[in-house]
Amino acid sequence: MSEVVSQPPPWSERISERYQCTLAPDLADWFDREIWQRQGTGEFRVPISPAALLSDAADEIWPGLMPCDMLPVLADSAGNWVCVRADANNQMSEMVQWFHGGGDWMPWGKRLADAIVFEAVVERLPGPRRRLAVPAENPKQDFDPLNDPFVHWAFEHQSKSIRELLAEQTSPQETAEILLREDIATEAVRCELVQDAMHQPWSSQVNSKIASKLGLSWNDCVSWMFDGSRIPADAWRLLKDNLNVGDFDRGTQDWSAVERHCKAVIDHTQESTRQLAWAWDLLGYAIERRDDRAGAIGVYERGATASSFTDQAVRMNSHWMQHEAAKFSVARLQKLAPETVQASKYLSSLLGSSSQACRHQVVEYWMDQANNARDPSTSLERLMHAGWDVGVDSFHRFSTLLDRIAIEAEAAGQQARATLAKTHRRCLQNRYGV
């Protein structure tokens, strides 16, 4: 009589057990049908095997730099990742594109299938396609969406309207409208639309070297790229004469569209640790531009605690105020309501550039807030701010911080976050000996 060979549990069950979480159906399908075994052609074409994720300390995790509620599942060739993120209900409920160069991150939808769809069609959206860093070569030069196995799998998990995008040529605006209507990576889509609304054609013709040659401050130029109304008449004449551009190249920035999209992003985001600084910064500035001083101050105050790793400052050209404060919202608050900044221990600690001393004060502030929290959930939220608001003053901080996060998450019944924090802690020990 032949011996019955038992089959191992599906990958999704093992990962769910390992991380004490519930996977979205599409992510379970990705693992169980072994889509990750195939070869993609897009920018994020390197899947992480479930076997690697089941290890005690996956090499793919960047401990300390990567927020400890994230688990990488898909990589590009440059060290950037698409991660899945655990929520307070132990659901793996959000996809995030994490950039290794500075630790910046951007939500890419609720599901892996949504993130892959967004990557497949992002070049078809309105806007200038500005990146956080210029790659050495085009990362999508071999992209073949009609024959890409990851793309085909992702579109299988979509509505008819989204599936039709793969074969049909829609206008940039129509593509954006379909993605928003079907709730596909809406924050990332609106980020592209905001850049489109702010884009001025002349800005593509100037860089720091050209600015220096013309005797212009590069920081001033960045502020003009951010808001065209800030360009002095004599500076515009100089730019026109030397860049071979005309008045039509100034374009027309649509700040009402900026305001609308940023408000939609903010309304879509609930948890404080997931607030997106770029949306708060630009909403505040759009309101400030229409002379609603009180409204702008209120938005800047509320947005000041959003992580600096979510400001998309290079893409939005909002980094022209970084010499005044570590966050754009705080810099604008200092202009509009300095008494409010001075009265706040937290806000005043962010004045000046983001230095080690600034980071130390911010971390200490959040640690004090966590110590005074009335419940584990609030303490956990504040500890996450301590680690990933403006970064830490010393990498050794993460050892005790991750231990504390794991304890508070467990006490709050957030087992997935506790398990992820413990995993990131082991990775920290293995990689850095901390």
TrEMBL record:
<protein>
    <submittedName>
        <fullName>Uncharacterized protein</fullName>
    </submittedName>
</protein>
